[in-house]
Amino acid sequence: MQTVHSRAVCTQQRVAAVPAHVARPAATSRQVVARTSNVPLHHVSNDSTSSADAGGEGRCPFLQALRAPPMVQMSWLKRVQLQIFAPAEFQAHVLRDRGQDTVVQAPRQAGFSSFFMPATGELVKALLGEEASGNITQGLAEEGGFRAFGTLLGEDSLLVVKDPARHAYLRGLLQPAFSADAVAAYLPDIEALVSRHLQAWQGAGREGVKAHAALKALTFDFILQIVMGRSIPEQQLQRLGELFSALTSGLLAWPYLDLPFTAWHKALAAQAELCSFFLQGCAEARQQLAGGLAVPGVLGRLVAAADEQGNRLTDQEIAHNLLLVLFAGHDTSSTTLTRALANLQDHPRVMQRLREEQAAVQQRRGGAISADALRDMRYADAVVRETLRRDPVVGALARV
Description:
Layout: E1 2-6, E2 39-43, H1 61-65, H2 76-85, H3 87-95, E3 103-106, E4 115-118, H4 121-129, H5 147-153, H6 164-174, H7 180-202, H8 211-228, H9 234-249, H10 263-290, H11 297-304, H12 315-346, H13 348-365, H14 371-376, H15 378-390
Antiparallel strand pairs: 1-2, 3-4
């Protein structure tokens, strides 16, 4: 028997929406009563043996009642290679031919903490649904290579904060800036920015543009302009792009030595300069608000945000989470858009139907992009969703 430790533990709540093919705890044990770190779970070599057989005081009865997850059977070197460079292939490999096994366990190794991988859509939905109740957070483990995220994205980033109460507090103040109404207010600026980039692409003539590079430039410009509420001068935009590249390169710069010639040292310097850019923006926005002026963009909404008790985000909390917006939205968006264009090139009938829908929406709603026009683009929405299904850009979502 091998003992492992879980960072994901249960809270006091009734077990709900567990698929029928997953082992359920006995009726007398359905109230989950444990919330402590390092709850011992037992992996038994025989997959059919229930972890409840292990017994023991102080352990979560729900987790005890579940069948012990089978361990990933793969060499540590291959696991590292696949987890970093081919996460979708890693997932497909370890979940293949598992039958009724709904969770797979990966052992701890260099650069990664131990973790459990749900294998069904029902379990994934149940897990992500718990985030709204505050029972789990997005915080990454403070072990191995994940420490780099905490250092480079900042301790106040939602991706790093693990305390449920603090995570809920930050989320409550941050989310309104990304609500449907907020995004609708950004649409005129979004349309103007995208149109400017499209005109530049048309100007390239027969030389054309490299889609991925062009879309990376567009999404980086897009995020910063919508966040800051203003256009960014070209020279400054180029400098910020260089800093962002240095920061993301540092995430895999193991062994994370802070020496002048290392990628980690350059990433730390880039993070400091990017945070300084956002902090300066916060100071300027607060000055404008104090003078009775409206501050546009995401930044303006974050600076003005307050909860029911009048608490406001600090400049550091804003800066760290704007770094997260840049990190989470740049490569993911540009890669998804590139894959969408590639798929459309391979399916001309889909492209034609998209054009027909766009023409019909313009006829009904006018030429400008509006929230109502976007709601009418049902086929375009389906194309985006199918792109994400065929070519998922995110290999995994971590919860603790």
